[in-house]
Design brief:
Blueprint (H helix, E strand, L loop, with lengths): L2 H37 L3 H18 L1 H9 L3 E4 L1 H22 L10 H8 L6 H15 L2 E4 L2
Antiparallel strand pairs: 1-2
Helix pairs in contact: 1-2, 2-4, 2-6, 4-6
Length: 147
Amino acid sequence: MNLSLKRAIRYLIFLVVLSGVLLIGLKYQQHLFKLSRETYEIKGYLLFESSFPIFLGMVLAIPRILQIFSKKGHLKVNWLRIVILGLPFLYFAIIPILYFSEAVKIDLPLSKLVFGYFGVNGSTTLNTITGVIAGYIIVTSFYKRAD
């Protein structure tokens, strides 16, 4: 089998995996939404809605992770990338999780900005984008260096 065909097969497998994760996740989110309408308990739905984009960002990083683990060397972490890029995006993504799980009892910095977009009548676009970016950056901050 030539290299182009192998690459095409890998892309198709990744497409199937990514589509499956997306469809199953959205189906489960829809189930949680219906359940929250029946029981008036919205916490589970909002927690999933906040954490699913982070997981999706991690799934998007699978090709890069496979590429990293195929190399020889010792696994390293790019801490600067995680601290400067990953943590701020992760913070914006998990503000709703911290709020609805009642893990933090204080007003979080910039939470009003997030809830201005995330609130009941607001958009979840900010939370979704920051979650996908956070998941991707954190996972792809691992690399191997040959010794």
